[in-house]
Design brief:
alpha+beta; OB fold (Dihydrolipoamide Acetyltransferase, E2P); DNA polymerase, domain 1; Helicase, Ruva Protein, domain 3; 3 domains; 5-stranded antiparallel sheet; 8 helices; globular
Length: about 210
């Protein structure tokens, strides 16, 4: 089973990439990033076996790979739907939405309806925290400079202050703000600041809406 690929990019269209490894074999991988052909790529892989064949799904971080694998363990969530969730919403938003049982946020991803979103929350709300133990670092997965690149930061221990986030979101909703419009802002602010109280987070979020 393939779990990681490192090699030369010989084709990329922003949806799929072919990576030629040192053995000379070119592996075709679903990857929602546009890479420069001829560059070096290092990609985490989830190897999906299905009738009648096999598919490879590529991820920048180990955390994304593990999130994909736990999502596809849910009944009714196939590889394409699970991949769509991560690429459309981002790994942190998916994790937080499951923790808060925010079905509306999950159903924004293509291929995820209300029923699937509810099943994801039901099955994974008590398990999703385990995904945070895996590295979210993008180092070692070089993308093409200037081409849909994600800024390479030190790993953010996302989820370290979940109670603060939950209380802040509840306070914002009581003030009339929609959670799906403030969730991403709140997550970013938590990552960029030393937030000790929900009131601090609410204040900073409201300054941006």
């Amino acid at each position: 089973m393939i779990g990681y690929l490192s090699g030369e990019v010989i084709f990329s269209d922003g949806k799929e990439v072919i990576i030629k490894t040192a053995s000379g074999v070119g592996h075709q991988v679903y990857l929602q990033k546009l890479l420069v052909e001829g560059s070096q790529a290092d990609v985490f892989i989830s190897h999906v076996f299905k009738d009648p064949g096999q598919e490879l799904f590529g991820f920048e971080t180990l955390r994304e790979k593990k999130l994909f694998e736990i999502l596809t363990s849910v009944k009714g969530v196939g590889p394409k739907s699970g991949y769509s969730l991560i690429t459309a919403l981002g790994v942190e938003t998916v994790i937080q939405s499951i923790q808060l049982e925010n079905k509306k946020s999950l159903s924004k991803a293509p291929g995820i309806g209300a029923k699937a979103a509810a099943q994801i929350c039901l099955d994974l709300s008590s398990k999703i925290q385990s995904v945070l133990m895996y590295s979210g670092s993008r180092k070692g997965t070089p993308l093409s400079p200037g081409v849909d690149r994600v800024i390479e930061n030190e790993e953010i221990p996302f989820g370290f202050s979940t109670p603060i986030l939950e209380e802040a979101l509840m306070a914002c909703k009581e003030l009339g703000f929609r959670e799906d419009l403030i969730l991403a802002k709140a997550q970013r602010i938590l990552a960029e600041n030393d937030i000790q109280k929900p009131e601090q987070l609410v204040h900073l979020v409201l300054k941006e809406v």
